[in-house]
Amino acid sequence: MQKKKKTKINRGAGGKKTLSLSDKSLRYICLAFLLLLLFFYIRGFLYYRNHFHRNTYINGVSMKGKTVEEAERYFNEDFASHDIKLVEKERTETIRAREVVEEISTNGQVQKIFNRLHAWNWFTDLFGKEKYTVTLEADYDEARLRTIVNGLDCFKPSNVTEPRDAHIVPGKKAYKIVPEVIGNQVDKEGLLKSLETAISQNITKIDLEKEDLYVLPRVYAKDKAIKKALKEANKYALSQVIYDFNRKTETVDYALFKDWIVFSEDLKVSVDEDKISEYILGLAAKYNTMGRAHHFKTSSGKIIRIDDGDYGWKVDTKKEKKQLASDIQSGKKISRKPFYSYEAMGYYSKVDDIGNSYVEVDIRSQKLWLYINGRCKMRSAVVTGDVKRHYDTEKGVYSITYKESPSTLTGVNSNGSAYSSDVKYWMPFNGNQGLHDAPWRMTFGGSEYEGNGSHGCVNCPVKTAKVLYDNVKAGFPVVIY
Fold first, then answer.
1. Is residue 373 included in any domain, yes or no?
2. Are 68 and 57 in contact (CB under 8 A)?
3. Staple partner for 353: which of 156, 218, 319, 344, CB 3.0–4.6 Å?
4. Residue 10's pLDDT band (boundaries 50, 70, 90)?
């Protein structure tokens, strides 16, 4: 009698019967799952042998599922995708690739990237991004690109606010900083270079501000250099120079010189030399008496006008220009006389700067007077230049150049011969013309100067010359009429 095979029955909750799978059945299921995975793997392998992996990005564009030909075509033929958006401060503008680009080529770079991929590990590239960059060889019309850029709204004059540096200007009582203006002026050449790069690298967006394509100020109000310059300029603003022109004064202060202060590109502070010169020349024109007509009251009581001579006040413009610049830069209050290259004996007056101490020579009467502090100290007959031989004594107002005792006078006669005369008292006032003693003469005054006059000097008796020599000095006025 055969034994019957028993099947194990498990009773679960509620007393129902359940059957458990055998190990063999489980193995079948696992094998089927593995075969399914293998199927999908092989299918993926076969697919990705000719297609880019899903995580591949070239120039920021996903190449998922594209063949090399499709990827090449994307870069080579899809002009619209190469349009470049310009993000500006006030607007957005677009450069249409089709208007500029004539042909695009990757030059085999896409194929090289694909060759680096391995089809059998396609499943490991399902997530993340593998980024690649290719340089597109875009054949574009440079002239056309420039024309399009020139026509952008951002370059229209009505839309452009140029940047302006922070700068220092004079205020009412001191200098102040005017803040910078940022503006919206685009760097055209910089933009053209960025566009050329964008075309070659398939960049479709350029943010002008992020790419520093705006022309910016070089100097900002917060910069240390401009603050330092302001401090120095305001030191100058404290300066005051009071010129003493004897009976009058001239004041140079901030109100006058505020426009004379200049700032270099590197914000160095200085005084404008041209404006200093202009001011000093104005002072000289106002106060110089040298070269001006002198109104003189003669010993006879007649007031005459004398136009010639080199006597008078003359501002030394070269020294004064340098000194005034230094005074302004000092930041101090200064009162002083100006520098003179020539000085008169009397106080300034447009009518008379000769004063009341002078030598007076009347050619017609052949007379000489010496006045000291308004009183006639001496009167004498003299002999002036020989008018017949054209050795005239020059008329005008002069000053004693120097005095010398003794001295030897030399020169040339009208016939070409040389002469040499020893004198004890020599007081030149106009080049080689001067006052001196003439011990060789027996007669003075009268008509001696008409045919027997001097070579241009004022010949005096020895006693007269001595009194003159004892009372005059360099700068002493000599009036000849």
1. yes
2. no
3. 344
4. very low
* Co-location of 333 and 383 in the same domain: no
Q: Which structural domain, as residue segments, surrounds residue 472?
A: 358-480
Q: Residue 351's pLDDT is what?
A: 55
Is residue 298 within 8 Å of residue 360, measured between CB atoms? yes
Based on the fold, state whether residues 362 and 338 are members of the same structural domain: no
- Phi, psi of 27, rounded to the nearest 5 degrees: -65, -35
The domain spanning residue 322 has which CATH number?
3.10.20.800
**Which of 143, 176, 207 is the C-terminal boundary of a domain?**
207
Tens digit of pLDDT for each residue in 64-107?
A: 989 999 998 888 777 887 899 999 999 999 999 889 988 877 88
**How far is Cα 380 from Cα 463, in angstroms, rounded to an integer?**
10
What are the structure tokens assigned to 134, written together? 């290719």
Burial class (CB in 10 A: 0-12, 13-18, 19+), 153: middle
The count of domains in the chain is 3
Measured CA to CA, the distance from residue 262 to residue 3 in angstroms comes to 125
Shared-domain flag, residues 285 and 169: no
C-alpha 472/C-alpha 202 separation (Å) is 96
Q: What is the DSSP string of 389-414?
A: TT-PPPPEEEE----BSSEEEEEE-T
| Sequence-ordered strand ranges (E) for 401-457 | 407-412, 418-423, 426-430, 433-437
Q: What percent of the chain has pLDDT over 90?
A: 69
- For the four alpha carbons of 424, 428, 434 and 435, in that order, the dihedral sign comes to negative
> Which CB contacts under 8 angstroms, 24+ apart, belong to 408-417?
409/436, 409/457, 411/455, 413/455, 414/389, 414/390
Give me 343's structure tokens: 């000085």
CA atoms within 13 A on the CB side of 67: 6
* Phi–psi pair at 82, nearest 5 degrees: -100, 5
Q: In 51-94, where does DSSP find H-type helix?
A: 68-77
Q: Coil, strand, or helix at residue 126? A: coil
- Indicate whether 25 belongs to any domain: no
